[in-house]
Design brief:
7% strand; 24 helices
């Protein structure tokens, strides 16, 4: 038991433990916190706004605002226990070096992070730092992801076992943590990050409290009942999907928490099939993150080495038009503008905009990577990079999908409601032309008070010609010897036994 009155004079080099938060911004089902509590020493809770990540192109202000909101939420939960998270703007090695001036750091507890290369290199340096400074570093697995896995022989069973296991128990008591007055003294030697954020009503707000609010509304308010039917619709998906992805990505809630809550709700649910469809997506999420954990080079290059020889000519004009939603294809433009303003578009629309970029504009997926990750509020490296490659048709194992934005527009936004919301230049265009405004005659344009090429761009490329070129090129590469060899390797390494997942 921890004494209820731990002396905290910071000049005595008292031994402490640290919980280093990364993409696990929660106090519930947090194994790192659970282990720190069990260890018995006073605990310092730490989040470092790392300069190397603040400057990285994959991240943007929307991410940092979400993280700040998540930390504010954690601090509100910690308020009854006279502590909070020390939020430092620095690098983690420098931060620990400074903290050693005040305490003897015994152990750092954290979760393994399946992140971009820069975080992996940081963690390797952190491991060396801890070894050199006689600090133990205890890492916990995160969301069932396994490090060092060579194949998927037992992965399905391991994942199911993780999902069903009891949540990490994290009893909070004031006596376990470094108190506020001591933290205030320590904070004086750091550049402490201001956690205030601007009002951004178009963006989801971070924090475990909000995560649970979304989960409860999805299930208890019946949003789940049309899940399978609304998931592909750009407008309906905004309420018909759970919208938990940013909370899972930044660790406000664990996959296991969501799965167990959903399974408990399923017992009395009116539509069990929709709960099952939702639960399958949770497994799908873990599957892709595990894939990236096992082969992180896909951040930079195609997982199938046979596609490394695929060369595409960079067009800055095409890329800017795509980013700004000025391609002349209404659904593409609506999606890109919506993403910029809200940080969210649904899965099918994400696949479509990547397909358009890589196939119709014939641009390398790497050129879309940083921009999209900086726009997606739910940027999760383990989902982001495998999906980019799959939609670009450069895995060698997945069906080549070249999405037709006109067909998708007609099927999933038949009245053009989503288009007119995000491309207001087209709000007066009748439904007959909303999906293909370039078919309007000059008289049609005059009648509907729009001038194509001025008020709204003409198509930047010809859909059919570019689609055919991409299809012919990528299908021909399927027969390449190296592509086939790599396809076999990828299937052997990443495919689940007895049931394949794309």
């Amino acid at each position: 038991m921890i004494s209820s009155s731990i002396p905290m004079p910071i000049n005595k080099k008292q031994p402490i433990n640290i919980v280093w938060f990364k993409r696990d911004l929660r106090l519930q089902d947090n194994e790192a916190l659970q282990h720190a509590i069990a260890a018995g020493l006073p605990i310092l809770l730490l989040y470092v706004f790392e300069h190397s990540l603040l400057q990285d192109r994959h991240y943007s202000e929307r991410h940092w605002n979400f993280i700040k909101q998540s930390l504010v939420d954690i601090n509100a939960q910690l308020a009854p226990y006279n502590t909070q998270v020390l939020t430092v703007s620095s690098e983690v090695l420098k931060t620990l070096g400074t903290l050693q001036q005040f305490w003897k750091i015994h152990t750092v507890f954290s979760h393994q992070e399946t992140g971009i290369r820069i975080t992996y290199e940081r963690d390797k340096n952190f491991k060396a730092f801890c070894k050199n400074n006689l600090i133990q570093w205890v890492e916990s697995g995160n969301n069932g992801i396994q490090r060092g896995l060579q194949n998927r022989a037992t992965w399905r069973e391991d994942c199911e076992r993780y999902m069903a296991a009891p949540l990490a128990h994290c009893p909070l008591e004031a006596a376990r943590f470094i108190p506020l007055d001591t933290l205030a003294q320590v904070a004086e030697v750091f550049q402490v990050m201001d956690l205030a954020t601007p009002e951004t009503p178009n963006f989801q707000k971070g924090g475990s409290t909000m995560a649970m609010k979304y989960l409860r509304s999805f299930l208890h308010q019946g949003r789940y009942q049309q899940y399978s039917y609304h998931i592909s619709k750009p407008s309906l998906a905004r309420k018909g999907c759970s919208r938990l992805s940013p909370y899972i990505a930044w660790g406000n809630i664990s996959i296991r928490q969501v799965w167990q809550y959903a399974m408990e709700f399923r017992k009395t649910a009116k539509n069990k099939r929709q709960i099952d469809a939702f639960a399958s997506r949770l497994h799908w999420q873990v599957h892709f993150v595990q894939k990236f954990e096992m082969e992180d080079t896909m951040e930079f290059e195609s997982i199938n080495k046979g596609y490394h020889r695929l060369k595409k000519k960079i067009s800055e004009r095409y890329q800017i038009a795509w980013q700004e939603g000025q391609t002349g294809y209404p659904l593409i433009d609506a999606c890109m503008r919506c993403l910029r303003e809200t940080g969210y578009i649904n899965f099918r629309m994400r696949a479509m905009v990547v397909s358009f970029f890589t196939h119709n504009l014939w641009q390398p997926w790497q050129a879309a990577s940083a921009y999209l990750s900086s726009m997606f509020l739910d940027f999760e490296p383990g989902i982001h990079f495998p999906q980019l490659q799959m939609q670009a048709g450069e895995t060698g194992i997945n069906m080549l999908r070249i999405y037709n934005p006109i067909k998708n527009s007609i099927e999933h936004d038949p009245e053009g409601e989503f288009i007119k919301k995000w491309v207001p230049e087209l709000r007066n265009v009748p439904t007959a032309f909303i999906h293909e405004p370039y078919k309007m005659t000059p008289l049609d344009q005059k009648f509907n008070t729009i001038e194509l090429g001025k008020d709204y761009p003409l198509p930047i490329v010809d859909m059919q010609t570019t689609r055919q070129k991409a299809s012919d090129t990528l299908w021909s590469m399927k027969d390449d010897a190296l592509v086939k060899k790599e396809s076999y390797r990828i299937l052997h390494k990443h495919t689940l036994p007895s049931r394949k997942m794309e």
